[in-house]
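[recover] target loaded
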């Protein structure tokens, strides 16, 4: 099938079972890839329409390509334990390089695309990068680093010619194929020696509280999380009303994802959530991964792929929702009224389900009508009509946003974890969400809530430590328990509720401990024009906030309301300030009095990783923002 073919769920259901004992006993992803090549060799593994001859790569071809590239890496001097850096967009070459590095006995390390020269220099030195695979557009950065790093080679991805002595991906792969034709060398010996405790990758933390730390993650830890989450999905598939129709295969009373089911890789592969949900899960479940290099094309790609599962951080779900409501607001008459009513009915039904209440008869009748005339068409237009389950994590998602998507017919499960737990600590059983929680601890993992409310975790998912950071490792791991830094509570059903990060809590002048995330999420979701928000209140008599307008939704809103779409000018416009005031007022209504925002300032600029206020994973760098906007913050407490 080509990249634009529509999947027939009936064809998927006929696919061979991926739930075999051999797969469950695999010790490494190299072993998993070999099983895929043997059992599903003709199934497409990678799709990347912009990759030329690599636009469609089967599992058999992936094994061949990775073996060839592994031999070429060995000729460059890459040995067991060496770091192979990958600094590129989501593309087929990333997956091939990752697989090749493992086959060479090396450690693949992905770097965030948006890293500055200083940040890139730090992480590349920290893991002692031996060979770097680099998008052609990023070569200027690496030219300046070449003399600072002990590199055996820089490999340019996306270039057809040699640049400043660096080789190209195509040339290195061609050399590897020559070597493979001459013999397998030590390929089988190296692959056979890989155990579950060997390093599968190093993921650098986002650096919200200091320099990034390299978390050393193992094959065993990643495979444990993948298997466990797929098992949870299978056990609870009866709760997914479209499970059978959309391709989940039943085997022995449990559902599982069929071979060939499509997924999308578009979030940074340097982030553990993306790697485990799109990259590692696809390998274990024999999925078909479509790489998205340019996020602006997602609206076109999703309907082409129609994924069986879809991971999006809350910000992405917010953007989809905002696009829907903004489009409806631009309509007129009956079409506008029906559309907006459909969104409200979806939200109300979702809230009822989250709160374990039975929706009223009138609400149920309206929802049934809108399912036929609006929701089903909406899912199809977005490309989520074959999505059995949506996933979200990495940041809090608001109750109303989660409820609305559930009402639209997209069952979203929250996953909660951290890099140090190979991504996952808790996972919401499909079809069993609970308002304000992030799911139940996954089977096989022990949790404990310390006296101060901090979550402690022990289990096969806990990492062994940070690279070159013995002191930080000793602080994080105490007697086998990982100190997560997250403050939590447990419901009577065993669901986790996250209160906030210990280091991010606001302690007011009155001694009240407040979670900034809860306050920010309550307000941000009340208006499409509120993009980012930071609340402040340390040692202060009340909570204040900095507000940043959404660079995508705001221009549409501005056009509708006759407002200039220049952010600096808009930050002073009375109509914009009135809209922000409305969002603050409505958000405050959901908060305790001590949490309510009393004063706020609308900023005339955007926050991005490049401007320094956000990490590459779009988390707020609170300390940076506190310092950068100290004058604006203090002005809200004067007079």
């Amino acid at each position: 099938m080509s990249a634009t073919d529509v999947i027939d769920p009936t064809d998927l259901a006929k696919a061979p079972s991926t739930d075999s004992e051999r797969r469950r006993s695999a010790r490494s992803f190299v072993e998993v890839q070999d099983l895929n090549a043997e059992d599903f060799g003709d199934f497409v593994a990678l799709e990347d329409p912009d990759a030329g001859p690599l636009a469609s790569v089967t599992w058999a071809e992936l094994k061949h390509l990775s073996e060839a590239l592994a031999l070429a890496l060995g000729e460059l001097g890459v040995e067991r334990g060496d770091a192979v850096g990958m600094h590129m967009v989501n593309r087929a070459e990333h997956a091939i390089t990752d697989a090749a590095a493992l086959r060479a006995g090396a450690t693949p390390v992905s770097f965030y695309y948006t890293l500055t020269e200083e940040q890139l220099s730090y992480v590349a030195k920290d893991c002692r990068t031996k060979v770097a695979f680099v998008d052609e557009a990023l070569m200027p950065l690496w030219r300046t680093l070449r003399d600072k790093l002990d590199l055996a080679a820089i490999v340019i991805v996306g270039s057809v010619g040699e640049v400043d002595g660096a080789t190209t991906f195509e040339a290195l792969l061609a050399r590897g194929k020559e070597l493979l034709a001459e013999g397998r060398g030590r390929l089988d010996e190296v692959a056979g020696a890989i155990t579950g405790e060997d390093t599968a990758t190093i993921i650098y933390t986002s650096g919200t509280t200091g320099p990034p730390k390299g978390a050393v993650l193992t094959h065993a830890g990643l495979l444990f999380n993948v298997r466990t989450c797929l098992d949870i999905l299978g056990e609870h598939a009866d709760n997914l009303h479209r499970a059978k129709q959309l391709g989940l295969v039943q085997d022995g009373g449990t559902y599982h994802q069929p071979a060939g089911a499509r997924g999308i890789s578009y979030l940074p592969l340097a982030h553990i959530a993306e790697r485990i949900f799109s990259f590692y899960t696809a390998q274990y479940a024999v999925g078909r991964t479509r790489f998205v290099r340019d996020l602006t094309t997602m609206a076109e790609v999703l309907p082409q792929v129609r994924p069986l599962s879809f991971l999006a951080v809350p910000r992405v779900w917010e953007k989809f929702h905002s696009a829907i409501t903004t489009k409806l607001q631009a309509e007129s008459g009956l079409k506008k009224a029906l559309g907006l009513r459909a969104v409200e009915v979806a939200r109300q039904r979702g809230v009822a389900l989250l709160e374990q209440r039975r929706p009223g008869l009138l609400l149920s009748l309206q929802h049934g009508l809108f399912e036929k005339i609006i929701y089903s068409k909406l899912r199809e237009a977005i490309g989520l009509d074959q999505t059995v389950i949506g996933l979200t994590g990495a940041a809090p998602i608001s109750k109303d946003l989660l409820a609305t998507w559930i009402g639209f017919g997209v069952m979203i499960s929250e996953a909660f974890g951290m890099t140090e737990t190979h991504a996952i600590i808790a996972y919401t059983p499909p079809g069993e969400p609970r308002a304000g929680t992030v799911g139940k601890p996954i089977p096989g993992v022990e949790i404990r809530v310390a006296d101060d409310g901090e979550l402690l975790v022990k289990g096969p998912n806990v990492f062994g430590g940070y690279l070159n950071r013995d002191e930080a490792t000793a602080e994080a791991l105490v007697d086998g328990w990982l100190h997560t830094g997250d403050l939590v509570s447990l419901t009577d059903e065993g669901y986790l509720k996250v209160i906030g990060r210990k280091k991010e809590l606001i302690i007011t002048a009155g001694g009240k401990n407040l979670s900034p995330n809860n306050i920010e999420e309550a307000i941000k979701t009340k208006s499409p024009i509120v993009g980012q928000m930071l609340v402040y209140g340390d040692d202060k008599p009340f909570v204040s906030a900095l507000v940043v307008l959404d660079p995508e939704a705001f221009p549409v809103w501005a056009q509708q309301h006759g407002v200039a779409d220049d952010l600096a000018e808009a930050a002073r416009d009375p109509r914009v300030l009135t809209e922000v005031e409305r969002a603050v007022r409505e958000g405050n209504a959901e908060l305790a009095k001590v949490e309510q925002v009393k004063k706020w300032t609308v900023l005339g600029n955007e926050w991005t990783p490049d401007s320094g206020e956000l990490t590459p994973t779009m988390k707020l760098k609170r300390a940076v923002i506190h310092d950068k906007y100290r004058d604006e913050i203090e002005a809200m407490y004067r007079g």
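[recover] notes: The domain at 505-635 is CATH 3.30.300.30 (GMP Synthetase; Chain A, domain 3).
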